[in-house]
Structure formats: structure tokens, C-alpha cells
Amino acid sequence: MPSQLIDYYRAIETTSSSMLESAKLGAWEAVIQSEGACAILISQLRHHSQNHALSIEDRHEKRRIMLQILRNDAQIRIMMDPWLEDLEKVMHGGNLVLN
User: Fold this and answer.
1) Keyword Chaperone on this protein (predicted)?
2) What does the pLDDT look like over 29-58, one tens digit per residue?
């Protein structure tokens, strides 16, 4: 369990990286599980950030972490687009063509 506020950001970054690796492998269930873990960490971060502040150094680290999380998220979304298109076809009664 994270002990300092910045540790929550680091844990979210680590989980985001795990999501990206799982997405690269096509392990979408693992992506979804990691997404759930991220949601819990974000909730905990919100709770703890009400009572604690980041130092200047930690704010710089937070910025780096947030940029990496956004990069990871963008890559995951690119990989998910074909999967989501296939899902939409199935949901609308179309035929799914597996590659």
C-alpha cells in the first residue's frame, strides 16, 4: 500500500504500464483487471490528496508520471480500436471476421 502521496502516482503508472503490456499481448481481460486496479488507486489517491500536499520535487515527478500515463493510454486506445469496431459489429448484428 502506498505510504506517501507520490507513491499512489507511481503505483498508477506501474499499473498503466501493465495495462499497456497486456494490450500488446492482446490479453484484454488482464487490461480490464488492471483498469479496475487503477480505478481503486485513483480513488485512494483522491481521498489522501485531500489531506496531503506534494512537495515541489514530487510535483515534478507527478508531471512526468502523468505524461507517461497519458502516453500509455493513447497506445492502448490505438490497439483497442479494431477490437471495439469488431464488438460494435457484433452488437449491431453484423458478422465478425476473425483475422
Assistant:
1) yes
2) 999 999 999 999 999 999 999 988 899 999
